[in-house]
Design goal:
Blueprint (H helix, E strand, L loop, with lengths): L1 H21 L12 E5 L5 E6 L7 E7 L2 E13 L11 E8 L2 E14 L5 E7 L4 H9 L2 E8 L1 H4 L6 E5 L3 H14 L1
Antiparallel strand pairs: 1-2, 2-3, 3-4, 4-7, 5-6, 5-8, 6-7, 8-9
């Protein structure tokens, strides 16, 4: 009994430590607590954050090396359901809430990619982020993204909403712009 208790205690301590490392702790002087910038071999630069509910979900803005003035907007969701490939290039309607401001946005379904036997990645991407959305993100603290239709697409997703922190968004966008210009 004592041996099992200590095993459980160690597991709980490890989980607690992991959850603290992924949480929104305000560390003095720290930047980009929740956001990271990734440069791909094809020259794409992505500033991204992970979901608060499911870490694999992402909310991102990206730059192409050919046109640094263009800012793409991406939302990445995972599902354990088989997603019909015929919905590629169709649009999902999203309700996007930044702090207390709600916006509605259509985002194109661009990539449906099985990543394992049980998981499929769906990438929603618009070639240009709207100025009003970009400004709201720069001034916000949190963003909630919710799929609201069409109904025949919603059936592919168990999780249809996600929350993301915007802590570090501005610094990450500045870094992505700098990397893009230096290429």
């Amino acid at each position: 009994m004592t041996k099992n208790f200590f095993r459980l205690l160690i597991i709980l301590m490890l989980c607690f430590n992991y959850s603290l490392s992924k949480s929104n702790i305000n560390v003095p002087g720290a930047k980009n607590i929740d956001w990271e910038v990734v440069k791909f071999e094809n020259g794409m630069i992505k500033a991204t954050t992970h979901g608060c509910g499911l870490w694999a979900h992402e909310f991102a803005v990206a730059k192409k090396k050919e046109n640094c003035s263009q800012t793409l907007h991406a939302v990445i969701f995972y599902t354990d359901k088989k997603v019909d490939q015929s919905i590629i290039n169709k649009y999902m309607n999203f309700q996007i809430t930044i702090d207390n401001k709600t916006f509605f946005r259509k985002i194109q379904i661009r990539i449906i990619e099985p990543v394992s036997l049980l998981r499929t990645q769906v990438i929603f991407l618009n070639e240009q982020i709207d100025d009003w959305l970009f400004e709201a993100l720069k001034n916000g603290k949190n963003v909630k993204v919710e799929m609201i239709g069409p109904q025949e697409y919603l059936k592919f997703f168990v999780l249809q909403e996600e929350k993301f922190s915007l802590a570090g968004f501005n610094d990450s966008v500045i870094k992505a712009n700098k990397i893009c210009r230096e290429n």
